[in-house]
Amino acid sequence: MSIRTKTTLFVVITLGVLVALMVSIQFRSSLTRVEEIEEEQAIAQAERVVGQLDHTVDNVGGTNSDWGWWDATFEFAQDGNQEFIDDNVYADAFTPIGIDLLAVVDVDGNIVHQVWFTEDGEQSVPDGLLSLARPGAAFADFTTSPKATPGGLAEADGRVFVVTSRAILPSNEQGEHAGVLMMATEIDDGFVDDLAALVNLDVVVTPCSQESCAGLSTRPRISKTAEAITTDTVVEAADGTPVLRAQVAEERSIYQESVSGITRVLMILIAVGIAAVLITVAGIRRLVINPLDRLGSVVGEVGRTSDPSLRAEVDRSDEIGELAGGVNVMLARLQNSQRQLVDAKERIEGASDAKSRFLARVSHELRTPINGVLAYAQLMQLDPLDEATADSVEQIINAARHITALVDEFLDVARIEAGAIPLNLEPVNPAAIASEVIAMTKPLSEAQGTVISLAAPEDALVRADALRLRQAVLNLVSNAIKYGGSGRQVAISVRPSGRRFAIEVADEGPGIPADRLERLFIPFDRLDADDTGKQGSGVGLSVTQQLVELMDGTVEVTSEVGVGTTFTIVLPTPTEVDEAVLPSESEARYDTPVPSAETSP
């Protein structure tokens, strides 16, 4: 993904998230405020309904007061004369003013008169209401104020009434009262319809008990749907028990209109935000991305052509201009460094060629006299010699052979560096190679008291040069015997490693610290040069690694101090080799001639 795309995506996503967050917060806060206003209004409407019930109590109480201090009523409470009833107590006198029930109770609790005006005619007042007007009841207690008009809601026979009472007094309101005058109106469907029309709301009023109204209180509980908001309120009787459940439903017109208005505003904000994003992206592209693209094109062209003489255009004085100037300085230094590297490479290649020729000449010059020394020493062994002389001759032969081996290693290094090691890559049995190496190192292992074990499948095959593989394994086994210590064991094993085979040589020597493992394959670098007296040139492992790599293999090493070291040669199997690459092609890579002991003057 290009920086242009990344920057564009970053700006779009960042500004988009910010705009979305701003819109969301604004929408949520505005909507929350609208909902709060809506709830406040719903609670106010519920309180209007409850207030209207209280107003009804006041109206009934006012009528009751007018009748309660009337002299005719006072006399009726005492004598119960029929004339009072005929002249005053009839439906047309009370129902138009909202009074459904009337009862007169004397001071002894006797019912002087009681009547309930219904659509079906006059009926008896429920006993539950009459009991409220008898002496000792809440609606008959005038000890505090004879002029009081107790009132409220009351339930009787499953119905709810607005009830008020008044002590019956003469018009001068002096003396003892003659009884209690109770007036009431039933909260029925007609009452609820009139109430709904009065407050202009959808009102549902139903009786309730303490059980059916559980969870509700005198504080309105609000519930909402997409179309309406409803309040649910309990209205208590005079004694504090719940008797009425008032539900007020109202269309969510304020909410819906507010949502529409907020949505329009937010759409405008979104449009402005999108425009801001597009303008910002265009500005960033013009001021930052396009100049960086031009600078990147110059750098990319340098990478493709490897031509550090190219230069970036510097036409600005800001940070990008400074960057372009810095790139030009870097290219100038790179151009200079490239010239120096070419010169150094030529010098190094010349030195390497000189070293290879030197090694080849040294090998030739050393091999001739050493071969002569070895031949004379071997001739001396044919004659009878005393023990001391025989030991000396044996030491001469061993030293000559060691020098010959060193000369061969030096010559191998020169050939490998020159790419002149001929390889005959063919299927080779690693178990057979390991057996041959064990036989070749038998004198050395017996002298050291080292036991060599071999675990290898007989049918394993690798693609390698048998001579060079034997040389590599011999180097590893010889080192394992030499550095493993007397009386220790060297284990050789052949095992599958993925689609390849691995040849492992493990010793029980002192091990190699982890920080020194990297030096193992550096030519002429001996880890033990300073702390042991063991002989060696320091090129054996380097030659081993390079020979194995020429055969498309790898050499790995693991070591633990105090436990031992394991070298692993991993080589391909014949079936893994690409059939398109012929053996002759592989061998042709290593046929460049190099000065040798036989060709050097």
Explain what the structure shows:
The structure is a single chain. By secondary structure, the chain is an alpha+beta fold. The protein is built from 14 helices and 17 strands. The strands form four sheets. It has a six-stranded antiparallel beta sheet. A hairpin with a 5-residue loop joins β9 (228-236) and β10. The longest helix is centred in the first third of the chain and has 66 residues, at 3-68.
User: Can you give the helix content as a percent range?
Assistant: 40-55%
Number of DSSP strand runs: 17
Radius of gyration: 58 Å
Structural class: alpha+beta
> Biggest β-sheet: count, sense, barrel?
6 strands, antiparallel
CATH 4th-level superfamily of the domain at 12-251 = LuxQ periplasmic domain, N-terminal subdomain
- Overall mean pLDDT: 81
The fraction of residues assigned to DSSP E strands is 15-25%
Query: Uncertain spans, ≥5 residues at pLDDT below 50?
Result: 529-533, 579-601
Straight-line distance between termini? 62 Å
Sequence of strands across the biggest β-sheet: 3-2-1-6-5-4
Q: Outline, from the CA principal axes?
A: elongated
Any idea what the CATH architecture of the domain at 12-251 is? 2-Layer Sandwich
Q: How many distinct helices? A: 14
Key words describing this protein structure:
Heat Shock Protein 90; six-stranded antiparallel β-sheet; five-stranded mixed β-sheet; Beta-Lactamase; alpha+beta; about 600 residues; disordered C terminus
Short structural summary:
The protein contains 14 helices and 17 strands. The protein is α+β, with helices and mostly antiparallel strands. Among the domains are: 12-251, LuxQ periplasmic domain, N-terminal subdomain (Beta-Lactamase, 2-Layer Sandwich), CATH 3.30.450.220; 421-588, Histidine kinase-like ATPase, C-terminal domain (Heat Shock Protein 90), CATH 3.30.565.10.
